[in-house]
Amino acid sequence: MDGPTPQRSTWTFLTNHARVLSGIARNPWVRIRDLAAELQLTERTVQALVADLEEAGYLTHTREGRRNKYQIIWGGKFRHPAEAGKDIAPLLHLLAGTPESGGGDGPAGRER
How confident is the model at residue 43, as a pLDDT? Predict the structure, then answer.
Protein backbone atom coordinates (compact mmCIF):
# COMPACT_ATOMS: atom_id res chain seq x y z
CA MET A 1 0.00 0.00 0.00
CA ASP A 2 1.42 3.38 -0.99
CA GLY A 3 1.12 6.69 0.78
CA PRO A 4 2.08 8.04 4.16
CA THR A 5 2.03 5.78 7.17
CA PRO A 6 -0.77 6.80 9.53
CA GLN A 7 0.56 8.40 12.68
CA ARG A 8 -0.17 6.45 15.84
CA SER A 9 -0.91 8.09 19.15
CA THR A 10 1.66 7.65 21.86
CA TRP A 11 0.29 6.06 24.99
CA THR A 12 1.48 3.69 27.67
CA PHE A 13 -0.12 1.10 29.91
CA LEU A 14 1.13 2.68 33.12
CA THR A 15 0.59 6.12 34.54
CA ASN A 16 3.52 8.20 35.71
CA HIS A 17 2.27 7.67 39.28
CA ALA A 18 2.67 3.90 38.86
CA ARG A 19 6.10 4.32 37.29
CA VAL A 20 7.30 6.54 40.15
CA LEU A 21 5.92 4.16 42.78
CA SER A 22 7.57 1.16 41.13
CA GLY A 23 10.87 3.05 40.90
CA ILE A 24 10.71 3.76 44.62
CA ALA A 25 9.80 0.11 45.27
CA ARG A 26 13.03 -0.87 43.48
CA ASN A 27 15.13 1.61 45.46
CA PRO A 28 13.73 3.34 48.57
CA TRP A 29 16.83 5.57 48.71
CA VAL A 30 16.47 6.84 45.13
CA ARG A 31 17.06 10.54 44.59
CA ILE A 32 14.33 12.48 42.79
CA ARG A 33 16.94 13.60 40.25
CA ASP A 34 17.93 10.01 39.45
CA LEU A 35 14.34 8.78 39.29
CA ALA A 36 13.42 11.63 36.96
CA ALA A 37 16.29 10.74 34.65
CA GLU A 38 15.35 7.04 34.69
CA LEU A 39 11.70 7.78 33.90
CA GLN A 40 12.47 10.56 31.41
CA LEU A 41 10.46 13.09 33.40
CA THR A 42 11.40 16.42 34.91
CA GLU A 43 12.43 16.62 38.56
CA ARG A 44 9.50 18.93 39.22
CA THR A 45 7.09 16.39 37.75
CA VAL A 46 8.52 13.57 39.86
CA GLN A 47 8.36 15.76 42.99
CA ALA A 48 4.67 16.45 42.28
CA LEU A 49 3.96 12.76 41.69
CA VAL A 50 5.70 11.78 44.94
CA ALA A 51 3.66 14.43 46.78
CA ASP A 52 0.45 13.03 45.25
CA LEU A 53 1.39 9.49 46.29
CA GLU A 54 2.24 10.59 49.83
CA GLU A 55 -0.98 12.58 50.16
CA ALA A 56 -2.99 9.57 48.95
CA GLY A 57 -1.28 7.28 51.48
CA TYR A 58 0.74 5.11 49.10
CA LEU A 59 4.14 6.06 50.51
CA THR A 60 5.91 8.03 53.20
CA HIS A 61 9.42 9.37 53.52
CA THR A 62 11.84 10.09 56.30
CA ARG A 63 14.92 12.26 56.20
CA GLU A 64 18.07 10.34 57.07
CA GLY A 65 21.13 12.54 56.93
CA ARG A 66 21.08 14.38 53.64
CA ARG A 67 18.86 11.83 51.89
CA ASN A 68 15.22 10.82 51.89
CA LYS A 69 14.24 7.22 52.43
CA TYR A 70 10.88 6.33 50.96
CA GLN A 71 8.63 3.61 52.32
CA ILE A 72 5.85 2.05 50.29
CA ILE A 73 2.57 1.48 52.12
CA TRP A 74 2.00 -2.03 50.80
CA GLY A 75 -1.66 -2.24 51.86
CA GLY A 76 -2.67 0.38 49.27
CA LYS A 77 -5.53 -0.31 46.89
CA PHE A 78 -6.13 0.72 43.29
CA ARG A 79 -8.12 3.94 42.96
CA HIS A 80 -10.12 3.33 39.78
CA PRO A 81 -13.59 1.82 40.30
CA ALA A 82 -12.81 -0.98 37.82
CA GLU A 83 -10.05 -2.28 40.12
CA ALA A 84 -11.47 -1.02 43.42
CA GLY A 85 -10.50 -3.11 46.41
CA LYS A 86 -7.56 -4.83 44.73
CA ASP A 87 -4.09 -4.50 46.28
CA ILE A 88 -1.40 -2.56 44.41
CA ALA A 89 1.34 -4.76 45.89
CA PRO A 90 1.30 -7.53 43.24
CA LEU A 91 1.67 -4.99 40.44
CA LEU A 92 4.49 -3.19 42.24
CA HIS A 93 6.31 -6.46 42.88
CA LEU A 94 5.97 -7.35 39.20
CA LEU A 95 7.23 -3.95 38.02
CA ALA A 96 9.99 -3.71 40.61
CA GLY A 97 11.14 -7.29 40.04
CA THR A 98 10.85 -8.18 43.72
CA PRO A 99 9.39 -11.24 45.45
CA GLU A 100 5.92 -10.90 46.97
CA SER A 101 6.74 -12.44 50.33
CA GLY A 102 9.26 -11.71 53.00
CA GLY A 103 9.87 -9.34 55.86
CA GLY A 104 11.81 -6.21 56.60
CA ASP A 105 11.36 -2.79 55.11
CA GLY A 106 12.06 -3.67 51.49
CA PRO A 107 9.58 -4.27 48.68
CA ALA A 108 8.96 -7.81 49.88
CA GLY A 109 7.68 -6.60 53.26
CA ARG A 110 4.02 -5.91 53.91
CA GLU A 111 4.17 -2.76 56.05
CA ARG A 112 0.85 -1.11 56.68
Answer: 98
